[in-house]
Design a protein that fits this description.
alpha+beta, Alpha-Beta Plaits, globular, 297 residues
Length: 297
């Protein structure tokens, strides 16, 4: 495992522009990119380096000297061997490859057993509806997600998953929704999991528990400053399936009883390497995969 660090700063505030500081730290085009045009009166510069790279600390030092603030994103990267031997893997969809879908597009949910305050535990009862205006985002892809981490795969990959003997996995249809109430069925399937694991260990890091709700399940978010490192007790994984959901629901909820206007929190998917191998074999690059750690407590 290695930890990758992405730095974003405004290059327009630097004397001589961003090229000077990048050259002085040895950050070439293999590690740095500069926006072609300003965005909101800023010139975004991105630099990606290993956490142990001496250039990273030199860059931060120079930015601090010039009074330049930066955003910092840390993410663990793993070898194939580490992923292969993990007890479970967190599926982490790449944010830039999302399509909008969920309750506000017309997807139906049963909230009878859900938290009345935040909606955690809401149970989907219909096919997944996604925004018909975003269909072009699916072209040439085999997998995608919504902002609520609903996972969808094209139907051929769904067939591979269905015939593989994977446990705990079922599928729903996926439809494109348009403003004129037209619904178009797509050659995609939503991945669904029946198994919810017990709460994760408090040793987990890289997540923030805001305690927004008395149910204790929602109000959990990831944090960019620390890599996501989930920890589970061995006893809590005794009856896990190949496809599972976290007990915790992530994101900032907004729910007043009206599902059509809800911002539901959502669980994360945790799967065995058996699932990962199928996605790897299919050439799927839309997801990152993060091993969990198991402890005896």
């Amino acid at each position: 495992m290695r930890t990758e660090v992405r730095i974003r700063f405004d290059g327009s505030e630097l004397p001589g522009g961003p090229h000077t500081i990048l050259e002085s730290t040895g950050c070439g085009p293999d590690t740095a990119s500069i926006a072609e045009e300003p965005v909101l009166q800023q010139l975004p510069v991105w630099v990606t380096l290993d956490a142990t790279d001496a250039r990273l600390h030199k860059l931060m030092g120079l930015l601090q000297t010039h009074g330049i603030e930066w955003l910092e994103f840390r993410k663990d990267r793993f070898t194939g061997a580490e992923l292969e031997t993990a007890p479970l893997l967190l599926i982490d969809p790449i944010p830039q490859l999302r399509v909008f879908g969920g309750p506000r597009m017309g997807t139906k949910y049963d909230v009878t057993g859900a938290c009345k305050v935040c909606g955690a535990g809401a149970r989907q009862t219909s096919a997944l509806l996604i925004d018909g205006e975003e269909l072009s985002a699916l072209e040439g892809r085999r997998a995608a997600s919504t902002p609520y981490r609903d996972l969808i795969v094209e139907e051929r990959l769904a067939g591979q998953l269905a015939s593989s003997g994977i446990t705990g996995l079922s599928f729903r249809g996926v439809f494109a929704a348009f403003e004129n109430q037209v619904r178009l069925q797509l050659p995609w399937r939503q991945l669904c999991a029946a198994k919810t694991l017990p709460p994760m260990s408090p040793r987990s890091t890289g997540i923030i528990r805001h305690k927004h709700c008395v149910c204790g399940r929602s109000g959990v978010t990831g944090t960019a400053e620390q890599p996501t490192r989930l920890v589970y007790r061995a006893v809590d994984l005794a009856d896990m399936q190949d496809v599972n959901l976290t007990w915790e629901w992530f994101g900032e909820p907004r729910f007043n009883g009206d599902v059509s206007d809800a911002l539901f929190p959502y669980p994360w998917f945790l799967v065995t390497p058996k699932v990962w191998r199928i996605f790897q074999g299919a050439g799927v690059t839309e997801f990152d995969w993060i091993p969990i750690r198991v402890v005896d407590e």
